[in-house]
Amino acid sequence: MRSEDVQSVDTNVILRLVLGDVPSQRKRAINLLLNGHRYFVPEHVISEAVFTMERGQYKIGREKIADSLCSILDNKCIVYDKELFNEVFPYYVSHPRLSFVDCLLGFEVAKTQREPLWTFDQDFAKQSPTAKLVP
User: Fold this and answer.
1) For residue 105, which of 71, 80, 129 has the smallest C-alpha distance?
2) Which pLDDT tens digit goes with each residue over 31-44?
3) CA 51/CA 56 separation, integer angstroms
4) What is the domain-level CATH number for residue 107?
5) How does pLDDT run across 73-128, given as a tens digit for each residue?
6) Is the pLDDT of residue 2 over 80?
7) Which are the contacts of 39, defined by CB distance < 8 A and separation ≥ 6?
8) Which residue, among 62, 91, 69, has the nearest Cα to 19 in the 3D structure?
9) Among 4, 14, 29, 55, which is least packed by CB within 10 angstroms?
């Protein structure tokens, strides 16, 4: 598939689809996904969506965040790094002391085979198979 055959979406499109908190925008987002194009969702968009859903007026739990985002991302018109996020989301749900970004970072490092990931974050080093404390 040529890159011009795939367009991209921003975080707010994903959030409107998941949250449905702005009905007119949700309807427009649904119509966008039904127009026959494929849409790339960058890793940063997924991270920002998780961050937004965890905080502020939403304060949604990890399991619901993962389930909600996976149901949107698994749409046939969505293109994203499914292999990576199939590892990240379960880890995020099962490690509540780690941020989503830390979970994502740990698996990105493993995927690119650039380990270890040196850190000063003791919790991260204890819970991530790729992170190690700076000596």
Assistant:
1) 129
2) 999 999 999 999 99
3) 9
4) 3.40.50
5) 999 999 999 999 999 999 999 999 999 999 999 999 999 999 999 999 999 999 99
6) no
7) 6, 7, 8, 9, 32, 33, 77, 78, 79
8) 69
9) 4
Distances, alpha carbon 13 to alpha carbons 21, 62, 84, 119, in Å: 11, 20, 21, 33
Query: How far is the C-alpha of 70 from the C-alpha of 82, rounded, in Å?
Result: 9
Residue owning tokens 């698994």: 74
Number of structural domains, the chain? 1
Residues 6+ apart with CB under 8 A from 17: 26, 29, 30, 33, 72
Domain range spanning residue 98?
3-133
Q: pTM for the whole thing?
A: 0.91
- Give the CA-trace dihedral at 36, 37, 40, 46, to 10 degrees: -40
